[in-house]
Specification:
With about 300 residues, the chain is α/β, with parallel strands linked by helices. The chain is about 50% helix and about 5% strand. Helix 3 packs across helix 4 (about 95-100), helix 3 runs antiparallel to helix 10 (about 275-290) and helix 8 crosses helix 10 (about 275-290).
């Protein structure tokens, strides 16, 4: 009787036909929509960037479980990236700079990547050619909020701080790309060589590591992340926001931070002709403009 039941179960399963329709879009036959046409004009033709918002498994890290980016959130982020990143550097350094050094691909993922140690991956830069943005579906399209004055605000505050979750990440990853093109002074790594937290940085608080001369816990992981965090934190925070970090650092920590910042400023001025204080003033103005942007309408 058990054998018969097993055979019946097998035969029943064999009668079920699989749905021939794949859950993944066949991107080779996708009809171009309004957003695709807008991206063609504003990203591909203008900067030679392939802005990939549709989920493509071969372009994703298959060791993580992630979900596709929402269409409306993708539209909003494309407008924001253009305003807060691409056009910012165009204003500071010119269109030729961005056409030359911008990554050739930007890929969006709806959710964050989570590591085994509990850390979140907000973005990655791959070989200077591709930037990945994660957590796109967390974007509050109708209530974009940018905190430039308090770097120690809780990241759980809603609406989410666009500066922390997106803009800071954009400039951090772009810094990595520029560092790959032109290396910074290797003596930078000696400043905090004895105090980097290679494995336990995830357990540290941003405000506490300031005393050791780091702008964030992630900056304390290694010198390359330290350099990129110094750059992205400085230009995306107001003078008041940066002063909060120096105040939290105390006299000794502030001395280390100022030493590092002098080297970061020198690198960008000498290698890229970029004045970081001028760059910060551009970003502060553009940050103030974001709440008035229409993130649902392509123009």
């Amino acid at each position: 009787m058990l054998l018969a039941a097993g055979m019946f179960g097998l035969s029943s399963c064999s009668d079920d036909d699989l749905n021939p329709q794949s859950v993944f879009e066949d991107l080779s036959n996708v009809q171009k929509n309004e957003f695709d046409k807008w991206l063609e004009e504003n990203y591909r033709k203008e900067y030679n960037i392939d802005f990939m918002y549709r989920f493509t498994d071969k372009e994703s890290d298959l060791s993580y479980n992630v979900i596709p980016a929402d269409y409306d959130c993708s539209v909003a982020l494309a407008i924001l990236v253009k305003h807060m990143w691409l056009e910012t550097y165009v204003e500071a350094l010119g269109i030729d700079f961005m056409r030359t050094y911008t990554p050739r691909q930007i890929q969006l993922t709806g959710s964050y990547k989570w590591n085994a140690n509990g850390s979140q991956v907000l973005g990655t830069a791959e070989g200077g050619l591709k930037i990945m943005f994660y957590g796109v579906n967390e974007l509050d399209i109708d209530n974009p909020r940018i905190n430039v004055d308090n770097p120690y605000e809780s990241h759980a505050v809603v609406p989410l701080d666009m500066n922390y979750w997106f803009f800071h990440t954009m400039h951090h990853e772009f810094c990595h790309i520029l560092n790959q093109k032109k290396e910074y002074d290797p003596s930078y790594q000696n400043i905090s060589a004895a105090t980097y937290h290679a494995t336990d940085w995830i357990n540290l608080e941003d405000k506490n590591v300031a005393k050791e001369g780091f702008v964030s816990a992630y900056a304390s992981s290694e010198d390359r992340e330290d350099f990129a965090e110094m750059y992205s934190t400085y230009i995306t925070n107001s003078e008041a926001g940066w002063q909060k970090i120096l105040d939290a650092a105390g006299e000794d920590g502030a001395k280390i931070l100022n030493q590092k910042m002098d080297m970061v400023k020198e690198y960008f001025k000498n290698e890229w002709n970029l004045d970081l204080d001028h760059m910060r003033s551009i970003l502060m103005r553009r940050s103030a403009e974001v709440p008035d942007l229409d993130l649902r309408t392509l123009k």
